[in-house]
């Protein structure tokens, strides 16, 4: 069931979408469209007013940033009934109906500033103040409800700041709240909000001040998380070594550990500065955050180490991630040296290479030691990825950085400034240099992988059984894979008898027939690399095995089974991006010590035909270079027999949404007969492929007649039929020698955030529903001291 939890929940708001003079950007744009976007002309004064009009003051890049934001990418395409005008303009037009939003960089246009007369706000060329508190950071954004002019009921709003991306994020949030298109953001917008990050803000309401025509901030409503963060940092403990200070230390029992980290980073800093060379300020302050959710909330990003909003860096300490801390420190040092920011800034891919050339280590190896496995896996980047002015949406820093570092090393000169003193080569020249590096790497002898070069045929003996749960990430800052609550949810699954979870990153594909993929690993509310690592580490710490299972989320009401290119040229483009996505996660899964890796999920139309089969077999061989454990592919239930490369894998993987009966009124005997037929099909597949079989997904929704179309959540909420379906299938499955395990679809990384007990929704969750008892009984089957369930074969 390859359905990704959306970024937002939705309900209708009863208008229709209109982007005046900007039709391309009115819909969810494809990457190709985004590349050729043009700025809309000013809204004509005579234009019919829409419920919401967005007027962006005089900055082309800001207008494009607003259009590229989450609202127009994710929300608007799901709500064709929305009607919104977007265009350039520096004044409000006193429309007869509908809200208006003015958007501007500082300094604010006079007409926008005049509309705020009477509010406790002051605008400066590079800052703003509200209630006497001055905000100067580039990330600070003000969203302000303006007084409505006489005779006008519709709201007016102003969104201003210094940083385009931050302003666009503020507009996104305001539009989502005004249109009511998120079940997670149901409260009306405050009268004012100052955002430092999406999750760190000051909000409040206005009240009459007592002076005619003037408003003041209501003290009772003034919720200031920004001030709380300021005070917390100021009062936090500090551990320093040389020029490196770690701020945020609250656990004195780990003080020696912090001191060792500070000393390590200080030594690295000195060595890296000498290799640039850089003789400027070397004092670095690093915030040590208590967890990744806190890191994201305070700094707007999540990772092993990220650029801090109040400090140079912010990190969550794990001894395995010191290489990432040194790499992040090197990037900040390059910015101070003028190589990563400003007029002479290098492309992001080259910055990564320069930083890694300085810092050295990369996911358990020196960066140079990665060249041979990356070359043999066909994972070298192209010049276009390294020279792109912005990070490609389908690029992989994990794969590209070691190659970029080796290229920097190959340049003439001893210092980084010498190596980068001449112009960067054009794409063709750099591609030639990368081919030379790849050829040299292929000549180096690499130790044999810990895993098999090729899967061995199954001999029919019983295999260990995984009692698994598909552990879906809830797309939220406090409930995702990175959040501390993951450990609690895993403990909850352990009480059921579960001993395995699948972790599921996603890439986004706008069009099932288009070649572009976007890797959704750069936002704290998505499945980031560090979130996956954190969840895997917590799972292993609690005794779980981990199945690493990358998915594709296809928009436009489609699903991965419809992905099919129309010609070989687009197949080549799509496959190149998909390979990079899979190899990125194969390397990451190896670093996380995942137990099984899945190369794809329900990609029905990509696996048949000689060309497609050849590509998959080459990908399987490449993954084996990077990932040492067993491999599988998750085939859709009705297409699993058609997969031609089971012999190259270790497990047959099936997403098992087999109907058990066709009628709405099936008896238990009907369901048992249907389940027995399903088991016969699975057994035949395992024996034909000569591989043990893994149910990579299996589940039933909590709806009436769940057995009829188990893949569908559409229908009337009903727990009893979900329970009956599970009991029938489990009774037929039992413990078969050929069955390597099941992964139930599904539980969330934050069950409360996903809907508490059940929320009355006919979805696939089984926790806190009657079906939980069937799951508990099945997971106990064959365990030491357990009684064999009816219909099962027991553990041989």
Layout of strands and helices, then pairs:
Blueprint: H1 23-26, H2 31-35, E1 52-56, H3 60-67, H4 70-75, E2 84-88, E3 99-105, H5 110-114, E4 121-123, E5 128-130, E6 133-135, E7 141-146, E8 156-161, H6 164-179, E9 192-197, E10 200-204, E11 206-208, E12 215-217, E13 223-224, H7 225-235, E14 237-241, E15 244-249, H8 255-275, E16 284-288, H9 292-299, E17 305-307, E18 313-315, H10 322-336, H11 348-359, E19 361-362, E20 365-366, H12 371-376, H13 383-387, H14 397-410, H15 416-419, H16 427-442, E21 466-472, H17 486-495, E22 500-503, E23 506-509, E24 518-519, H18 529-541, E25 545-548, E26 551-554, H19 568-591, E27 596-601, H20 610-626, E28 631-636, E29 652-656, H21 668-689, E30 693-698, H22 719-733, E31 739-748, H23 771-780
Parallel strand pairs: 1-2, 1-3, 3-8, 15-16, 16-18, 21-22, 21-31, 22-25, 23-26, 25-27, 27-28, 28-29, 29-30, 30-31
Antiparallel strand pairs: 4-5, 5-6, 7-8, 7-9, 9-10, 10-13, 11-12, 14-15, 17-18, 19-20, 23-24
Describe the structure.
The chain is α/β, with parallel strands linked by helices and 796 residues long. The strands form seven sheets. The protein has an eight-stranded mixed beta sheet. Strands 21-22-25-27-28-29-30-31 form an eight-stranded parallel beta barrel, surrounded by four helices. Strand 23 and strand 24 form a beta hairpin. Helix 8 packs across helix 10 (322-336), helix 19 (568-591) packs parallel to helix 20 and helix 21 packs across helix 22 (719-733).
